[in-house]
Amino acid sequence: MDHDSLDELDQRLLQALQLDGRAPFSRIARDLGVSERTVARRYQRMRPRGLRIVGQPVVSRLGLTRWLLRVHCTPDAAGTIADALARRPDTSWVTLASGGTELYCALNARTADERNALLLDRLPRTPHVLSVSAHCMMRIFIGATSTWHSTRFRPQDAPAAVGSGADSAPPLSLDATDRVLFTELARDGRATLPELAAATGRSPSSVQRHLDRLRGEGALVLAVDFDPRLLGFHMATRIWLNVTPRHLRTVGEALATHPQIAFAAAITGASNLVASGIFRGPADLYDYVDRRIGRLPGIQGIETAPTLREVKRLAPAVP
């Protein structure tokens, strides 16, 4: 399918879903000025093309720490190692970049032992792994994952800094119903209350109370996943920035407002800010670096690494 076949109404539907992925079609139809049947038909038409609404946990609210791994491998082994990391339940996304010799991986760990089992034991002993660096995500300014969240159509009042207001809040305790809900919503963020009630063995009203608590406490967000290539964006790029400490928050918050950026976080390491951007092509990336990043204060260095393949994305992180 060519991106031109997505008309204005499709794009407005993506925007509405980004505001609230579980919004009733009746409300979306009223906001868009069309019939509920039209909205449902457009939504069902886009699903086979890759549209997903996915419930995602905010790891900081569940007592987890997210780490970003940079793994350098020999070219013949990078794909195999990426696939092995993707099969792990404690990784939420894995991408290949830099000529197929480097991969990036988000690891969610509750304890130092969980983290070290992979970083100090498994990966260093893996054949063809040349080096591993681990960067703790100290603050996420926007995005719970590395994927694209229809950023071109991000409404001004849509939530941006996922989990930023809850970074210092105590972890939210989960019961069995909460865990089942995370699992079901990771499959389909728009699963109906009767479907969720059947999966949890609870009443629809009880399920609704659990959902309201998880969303109200900032532990659950709904991500809109749609292939940006269908809208003409063909270059996903990881951007590593070295920012002076006094400007780190300013730059991170600025990136969160840029429509090209789907993910941005302050991290430990030589590059203290990392972002994921989506661009139409090399010229679009150049203009962004030149006109947007180049005008931000405190930028001391930048490294860009186009994504070659997304191996895993939008995976649940509930232990």
Structure description:
The chain is of the alpha+beta class and 319 residues long. Helix 2 packs across helix 3 (36-46) and helix 7 (193-200) packs across helix 8 (204-216). It has helices at residues 8-19, 25-32, 36-46, 78-86, 112-122, 176-187, 193-200, 204-216, 248-255, 282-291, and strands at residues 52-57, 65-73, 91-97, 102-109, 129-142, 220-225, 235-243, 261-267, 273-279, 299-312. The protein has two domains: 1-49, Arc Repressor Mutant, subunit A, CATH 1.10.10; 60-149 and 228-312, Alpha-Beta Plaits (2-Layer Sandwich). This is Lrp/AsnC family transcriptional regulator. One of its GO terms (molecular function) is sequence-specific DNA binding. InterPro entries: AsnC-type_HTH_dom, Dimeric_a/b-barrel, Tscrpt_reg_AsnC-like, Tscrpt_reg_AsnC/Lrp_C, WH-like_DNA-bd_sf, WH_DNA-bd_sf.
Helix and strand composition category: alpha+beta
Number of separate strands: 10
The CATH class of the largest domain: Alpha Beta
CATH architecture heading of the largest domain: 2-Layer Sandwich
| CATH overall fold name of the largest domain | Alpha-Beta Plaits
Cα Rg? 20 Å
Shape category: globular
Compute the average pLDDT: 87
Query: What is the strand arrangement across the widest sheet?
Result: 2-4-3-10-7-9-8-5
Helix content: 25-40%
Question: Beta fraction of the residues?
Answer: 25-35%
The helix tally amounts to 10
Largest sheet: 8 strands, antiparallel, barrel
Low-confidence runs (pLDDT<50, min 5 residues)? 145-166
The domain tally reads: 2
From the N-terminal CA to the C-terminal CA, the straight-line distance is: 37 Å
